[in-house]
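QA checklist item 7 of 12: single-chain prediction sanity check.
[x] sequence parsed
[x] length recorded as 125
[x] structure emitted
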Amino acid sequence: MGVHYVKGDLVKNPSIDATRPEALVYAPDVHGRLHLAAVEYVAIKSDWEAGQPPPPSTGYPTPVTPAPPMLFGQEFNFTDVPNRYGLPPFYSLHAWVWKDNPAGTFQMWNPSVHCDPRPALGRQR
């Protein structure tokens, strides 16, 4: 998954700006040095929904949930509670720009990136 450095003030702001990702994701090499691997965009679900325009009235009292955020033509992933981050429900999108992701550029998990460089050391035979 990589080592995430998060700017909390950006997470608190529900707007999505492609030039200001909420997190930078680093991948350690076999020597433990970190290299920029990806960016991650994050929006707290309740903040995102509060900032969306109300849906058009259908004349019936049915709740309509706003669509998740989208960026680069990709819909954000949803993470509910409980989660390992201790966050309320949120949307996120990874963009593996500097490190190839065999699962896909915008996939949440990159199987070739680990937080601890030791697993990579074991593969270097």
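[x] summary fact logged: The chain has a mean pLDDT of 88.
[ ] second reviewer sign-off
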